[in-house]
């Protein structure tokens, strides 16, 4: 039977509710008995905690009920009815500075008594761990593999609750901004006949007797949507990479935020979208996700991202020059490695006071076959990468829209054009100049929050060694 009672979220509990009755649901994070007549239960809901107190009181709370509360296992789900009180001293260890004087407590579902991860330990910052260990506290440092093995427990920590709410807001802002700019959301197939980015890093599979693979990007089909006259499109979807990169920033499956648009005059129109999209997104994260950012910061200390109102654009040549002046030996027509990207990030921060910038006009030789060469100097290309804190989050470019030249470029890059025949044919029916970019969602979240590993910003990460949970 539905009672129609009003539920309050733990995060909403505050002094303004003093003496009022509330009904909450949460998990038992910590349970402590004080003799036989009193018990404290810290209840957590979505990363917010409140201290609930059971005191034996005739006709309201029995000794049996106190005993029942102290017998609950951690992480069990409870419903509590009680009255809000405001304690004289600050409550340490709970996010809400009020208490609930319990009248009724129901166990909705219990957790097993021994958990593989203690959420309070998993939520501690490095400093807190060091301090606790020095003080001789018995503490188990929860390592990354354990966290990922028992991810449903790990993602209950306040920092993780924050990370995935930030991720949702990044995606939301991406969609909102692009819709407001006249883009259409599309979905392209993830089962495709051949590689979409060149190279062999694809997951191969059998498609009813035909060789196929999981899409490495929506690249070819998002361009075909432009050939189909949508003008401006975006896609949010899974991207699969089979490369054996066991690094802090590579996953085998990630979420791609992709954009493709007609270009009227110059590929800077695509960079303009990147600029306004990300400044709007960062502003919104700072404005609307303060609580989440605080929760992440409490565990993984980081400084807010420095970005300019108008995003800095440097050419690849300018970047190489800055690196050279700093004494870094570098091939002017080669790609940047992780180390030189980081170094350039530092130099840019020192000189321009920003941790978010665009590097454009990359050497053609290091870009995929579909990239448009620079008209004035075909050694370079109309392409760009975008960096947060010295690490790549986006790559983009103007594309070749002339089918004969596209065929030539694909052949020059060693691609079997038969495998992309329908893609090339799409350009034979009239195709406008166009360009776009691809963003890695997990990378944006990782770098905005300065997390040290992309597995922290992927709910159930897939890497060369992990396909479960
Ligand atoms: O640089 P990538 O491979 O570019 C493309 O896929 C192009 N089709 C994009 C375009 O429109 N020109 O991937 C784009 C972004 C990278 O900047 C990075 O943020 C992310 O996707 N990314 C990965 N994220 C996690 N794990 C991986 N293995 C990634 N590979 C790329």
Automatic annotation (TrEMBL):
InterPro entries the record matches: Aa-tRNA-synt_II, aa-tRNA-synth_II, aa-tRNA-synth_II/BPL/LPL, Asp-tRNA_synthase_2, Asp/Asn-tRNA-synth_IIb, NA-bd_OB-fold
Keyword Transport: no
Enzyme class: ligase
PROSITE patterns given in the database record: AA_TRNA_LIGASE_II
Cellular localisation: Cytoplasm
Swiss-Prot/TrEMBL catalytic activity: tRNA(Asp) + L-aspartate + ATP = L-aspartyl-tRNA(Asp) + AMP + diphosphate
Signal peptide residue numbers: none
CDD domains the record matches: AspRS_cyto_N, AsxRS_core
Stored PANTHER family: ASPARTATE--TRNA LIGASE, CYTOPLASMIC (PTHR43450:SF1), ASPARTYL-TRNA SYNTHETASE (PTHR43450)
This protein's name: aspartate--tRNA ligase
Organism from which the protein derives: Olea europaea subsp. europaea
């Amino acid at each position: 039977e539905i009672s129609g009672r009003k539920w309050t979220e733990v995060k909403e509990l505050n002094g303004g509710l003093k003496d009022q009755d509330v009904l909450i649901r949460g998990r038992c994070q910590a349970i402590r008995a004080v003799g036989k007549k009193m018990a404290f239960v810290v209840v957590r809901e979505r990363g917010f905690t409140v201290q609930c107190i059971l005191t034996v009181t005739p006709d309201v709370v029995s000794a049996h009920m106190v005993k029942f509360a102290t017998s609950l296992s951690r992480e069990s789900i409870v419903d509590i009815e009680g009255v809000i009180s405001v304690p004289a001293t600050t409550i340490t260890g709970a996010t809400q500075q009020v208490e609930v004087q319990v009248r009724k407590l129901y166990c909705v579902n219990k957790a097993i008594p021994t958990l593989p991860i203690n959420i309070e330990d998993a939520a501690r910052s490095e400093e807190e761990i060091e301090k606790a260990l020095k003080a001789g506290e018995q503490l188990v440092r929860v390592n990354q593999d354990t966290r990922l093995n028992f991810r449903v427990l790990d993602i209950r920590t306040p920092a993780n609750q924050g990370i995935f709410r930030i991720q949702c807001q990044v995606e939301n802002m991406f969609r909102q901004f692009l819709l407001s700019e006249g883009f259409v959301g599309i979905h392209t197939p993830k089962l495709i006949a051949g590689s979409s980015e060149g190279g062999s890093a694809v997951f191969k599979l059998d498609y009813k007797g035909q060789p196929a693979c999981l899409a490495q990007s929506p690249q070819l089909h998002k361009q075909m949507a432009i050939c189909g006259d949508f003008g401006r499109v975006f896609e949010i979807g899974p991207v699969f990479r089979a490369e054996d990169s066991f690094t802090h920033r590579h996953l085998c499956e990630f979420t791609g935020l992709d954009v493709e648009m007609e270009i009227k005059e110059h590929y800077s129109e695509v960079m303009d979208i990147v600029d306004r999209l990300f400044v709007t997104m960062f502003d919104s994260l700072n404005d609307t996700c303060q609580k989440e950012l605080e929760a992440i910061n409490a565990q993984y200390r980081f400084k807010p991202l420095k970005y300019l109102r108008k995003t800095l654009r440097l050419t690849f040549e300018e970047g190489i020059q800055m690196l050279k002046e700093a004494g870094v030996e570098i091939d002017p027509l080669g790609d940047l490695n992780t180390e030189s990207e980081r170094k350039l990030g530092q130099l840019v921060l020192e000189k321009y006071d920003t941790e978010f910038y665009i590097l454009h006009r990359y050497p053609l030789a290091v870009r995929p076959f579909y990239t448009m060469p620079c008209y004035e100097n075909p050694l370079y290309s109309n392409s760009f990468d975008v960096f947060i804190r010295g690490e790549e989050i986006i790559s983009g470019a103007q594309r070749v829209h002339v089918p004969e030249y596209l065929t030539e470029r694909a052949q020059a890059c060693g691609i079997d054009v038969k495998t992309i025949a329908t893609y090339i044919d799409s350009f034979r029916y009239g195709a406008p100049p166009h360009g776009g970019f691809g963003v890695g969602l997990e990378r944006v979240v990782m770098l905005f929050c300065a997390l040290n590993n992309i597995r922290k910003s992927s709910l159930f990460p897939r890497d060369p060694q992990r396909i479960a949970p």
